[in-house]
């Protein structure tokens, strides 16, 4: 099964290539990036919007994802807005540092990453898969690996290390890896 990826994020394309490498699913970057307004109220709605737009443009099966970090102490600030947290023009590092700043006086630091995958084969055949990675926000920005909020997120399995320090572990255990694992199992049986 061949899909184009509805994203302009080079890190995601690379990560999906690794995650699907031993399966019957191949994912390639779309020929060009489309600007899709992500105004849905859930990860599912935003993933579907991206998938539909890319399918209509390229007339090929599409894999779209929407993902983000959900922070218990800031329930309405991140989630589907994670990539826009703090406003336009901030780098990933600036967003992560802003998150640390906002949590300075907070005791509750629980958080989880969510990933929803939308496989849009045709308007009549659409599948969704979800994955989560539980943990908490660290006290400081640590690590060079990964991207986004990885340098400030400690998974439950490693409470004293950030995901940015655990790249190999992340490839097998992230929210995206869990969603992909469900999708691979499903498509193998299809």
From TrEMBL:
Q: Which UniProt keywords apply?
A: Hydrolase, Magnesium, Metal-binding, Nucleotide metabolism, Nucleotide-binding
Q: Name a Pfam family for this protein.
A: Ham1p_like
Cofactor(s) annotated in UniProt: Mg(2+)
Q: By what name is this protein known?
A: dITP/XTP pyrophosphatase
Q: Which organism is this entry from?
A: Halobacteriovorax vibrionivorans
Catalytic residues? 66 (proton acceptor)
The free-text function statement in the UniProt record for this protein reads: Pyrophosphatase that catalyzes the hydrolysis of nucleoside triphosphates to their monophosphate derivatives, with a high preference for the non-canonical purine nucleotides XTP (xanthosine triphosphate), dITP (deoxyinosine triphosphate) and ITP. Seems to function as a house-cleaning enzyme that removes non-canonical purine nucleotides from the nucleotide pool, thus preventing their incorporation into DNA/RNA and avoiding chromosomal lesions.
Q: Which reaction does it catalyse?
A: XTP + H2O = XMP + diphosphate + H(+); ITP + H2O = IMP + diphosphate + H(+); dITP + H2O = dIMP + diphosphate + H(+)
């Amino acid at each position: 099964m061949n899909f184009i990826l509805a994203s302009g994020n080079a890190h995601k394309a690379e990560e999906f290539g690794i995650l699907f490498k031993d399966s019957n699913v191949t994912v390639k970057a779309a020929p060009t990036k489309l600007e899709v307004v992500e105004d849905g109220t859930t990860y599912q709605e935003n993933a579907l919007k991206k998938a539909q737009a890319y399918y209509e443009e390229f007339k090929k099966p599409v894999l779209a994802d929407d993902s983000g970090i959900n922070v218990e102490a800031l329930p309405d600030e991140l989630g589907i807005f994670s990539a826009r947290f703090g406003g336009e023009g901030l780098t990933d590092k600036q967003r992560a540092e802003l998150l640390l700043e906002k949590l300075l006086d907070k005791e509750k630091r629980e958080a989880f990453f969510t990933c929803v995958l939308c496989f849009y084969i045709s308007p009549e055949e659409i599948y969704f898969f979800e994955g989560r990675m539980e943990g908490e926000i660290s006290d400081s920005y640590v690590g060079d690996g990964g991207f986004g909020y990885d340098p400030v997120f400690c998974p439950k399995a490693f409470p004293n290390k950030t995901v940015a320090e655990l790249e190999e572990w992340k490839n097998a255990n992230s929210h995206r890896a869990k969603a992909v694992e469900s999708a691979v199992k499903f498509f193998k049986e299809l």
